């Protein structure tokens, strides 16, 4: 098993991509602490999956946009776990509208949940990883963090910031054995993208070289690779999981 005896923290583990990452990690033997805002519909299933693989799933709750709540919750999980080998900052939101219509609170909330929360969680978790001289941090960016996206200036800025942040952190902590990478998904079928109208979805899919939307499993597979011993010489990178959209 790729993550036997490893401990992982995954934010945004209740649904979509984060849920599939939690499943992939548990199936490879990791003990997983999953964070979301409230008890998830899949909690019992994840606990069973963990038991089936001889490990444990722990769900805990915090609003990633609330620095105090987030910090207290992550410190609690870290002390319960006694340290994490893998951290996935995956929790994310959109508040899309054209820039000239965007309210400052929609700018602030997206930056807080998508970017500032990753900084806060990394600060707590990486401090411990540095002392143990090992760890893999995976930050969930987006293709629009590289190429931009109309109607998403707040979201694109948060993801572009997350990429620059991750590359900078990789340079700071590499000599201590800690790796930091980003995944940049393209168009993935989850709750986040289900509001997209069918005709727009069709035209997007037409523009994807692999001619399909991605699945949460497609992204989870990349996270598993970056979390595991298969990627020990990879840091400061952005792995696109986008069917060729960004090429
Ligand atoms: P999703 O289905 O909407 O799930 C979002 C997850 O984030 C949920 O677990 C949710 O928990 C959690 N979350 C949201 N706000 C939170 C908050 N304030 N505090 C704590 N947890 C919070 O989204 P997804 O599509 O899986 O996206 C996961 C990540 O991939 C995000 O960072 C997103 O930006 C990125 N991404 C997605 C796509 C895509 O096409 N889907 C493309 C590029 C990048 P609750 O259930 O408690 O709300």
Automatic annotation (TrEMBL):
<feature type="domain" description="Ketoreductase">
    <location>
        <begin position="6"/>
        <end position="191"/>
    </location>
</feature>
<feature type="active site" description="Proton acceptor">
    <location>
        <position position="155"/>
    </location>
</feature>
<feature type="binding site">
    <location>
        <position position="90"/>
    </location>
    <ligand>
        <name>NADP(+)</name>
    </ligand>
</feature>
<keyword id="KW-0521">NADP</keyword>
<feature type="binding site">
    <location>
        <position position="37"/>
    </location>
    <ligand>
        <name>NADP(+)</name>
    </ligand>
</feature>
<dbReference type="Pfam" id="PF13561">
    <property type="entry name" value="adh_short_C2"/>
</dbReference>
<dbReference type="InterPro" id="IPR050259">
    <property type="entry name" value="SDR"/>
</dbReference>
<keyword id="KW-0275">Fatty acid biosynthesis</keyword>
<comment type="subunit">
    <text>Homotetramer.</text>
</comment>
<dbReference type="GO" id="GO:0051287">
    <property type="term" value="F:NAD binding"/>
</dbReference>
<protein>
    <recommendedName>
        <fullName>3-oxoacyl-[acyl-carrier-protein] reductase</fullName>
        <ecNumber>1.1.1.100</ecNumber>
    </recommendedName>
</protein>
<dbReference type="InterPro" id="IPR057326">
    <property type="entry name" value="KR_dom"/>
</dbReference>
<dbReference type="InterPro" id="IPR036291">
    <property type="entry name" value="NAD(P)-bd_dom_sf"/>
</dbReference>
<feature type="binding site">
    <location>
        <begin position="12"/>
        <end position="15"/>
    </location>
    <ligand>
        <name>NADP(+)</name>
    </ligand>
</feature>
<dbReference type="InterPro" id="IPR002347">
    <property type="entry name" value="SDR_fam"/>
</dbReference>
<comment type="similarity">
    <text>Belongs to the short-chain dehydrogenases/reductases (SDR) family.</text>
</comment>
<comment type="function">
    <text>Catalyzes the NADPH-dependent reduction of beta-ketoacyl-ACP substrates to beta-hydroxyacyl-ACP products, the first reductive step in the elongation cycle of fatty acid biosynthesis.</text>
</comment>
<dbReference type="InterPro" id="IPR011284">
    <property type="entry name" value="3oxo_ACP_reduc"/>
</dbReference>
<keyword id="KW-0560">Oxidoreductase</keyword>
<dbReference type="InterPro" id="IPR020904">
    <property type="entry name" value="Sc_DH/Rdtase_CS"/>
</dbReference>
<feature type="binding site">
    <location>
        <begin position="155"/>
        <end position="159"/>
    </location>
    <ligand>
        <name>NADP(+)</name>
    </ligand>
</feature>
<dbReference type="GO" id="GO:0006633">
    <property type="term" value="P:fatty acid biosynthetic process"/>
</dbReference>
<dbReference type="GO" id="GO:0004316">
    <property type="term" value="F:3-oxoacyl-[acyl-carrier-protein] reductase (NADPH) activity"/>
</dbReference>
<feature type="binding site">
    <location>
        <position position="188"/>
    </location>
    <ligand>
        <name>NADP(+)</name>
    </ligand>
</feature>
<comment type="pathway">
    <text>Lipid metabolism; fatty acid biosynthesis.</text>
</comment>
<keyword id="KW-0276">Fatty acid metabolism</keyword>
<keyword id="KW-0443">Lipid metabolism</keyword>
<keyword id="KW-0444">Lipid biosynthesis</keyword>
